[in-house]
Amino acid sequence: MIGRVIGLDPGERRIGVAVSDPTGTIASPDRYIDTRTESVGVVLQEICAERQAALIVVGLPISLDGSEGPSAARAREFGASVAEATGLDVVFHDERFTSHTAEAALIAGGVRRKARKEKRDQIAAAVMLQSYLDRRKNDEDRQ
User: Fold this and answer.
1) pLDDT below 50 — which residues of the chain?
2) What is the pTM of this model?
3) Could you tell me the CATH superfamily of domain 4-142?
């Protein structure tokens, strides 16, 4: 696949956004969308057009036992609305522990609590997106 991949970590108040490089190899945190003050569909359309996105990956909160609960159902509904708003294909990827990983990295980096709150969602999106990109690369290498 040629083109950037957008990673979204949906939450109730914020949606973390990450973007891959044009080859779909490396994920980087981009920003977060504040669901209280921004029109999510419009912002995603702008991001996808600006970045020339080819695919969107939405984080899917799967339980430790592998089941999908109410949060996963909301993520799937969100993904359907993202696909409708952007016209791009949407895939889902397990996001277990991404927020914890992001928080731990920010603490290790000495980021203060208030600043961590501002960065956590986009870093969690990047962690999830990088996991997806790595898995996709491994799957391609096996073929």
Assistant:
1) none
2) 0.88
3) YqgF/RNase H-like domain (3.30.420.140)
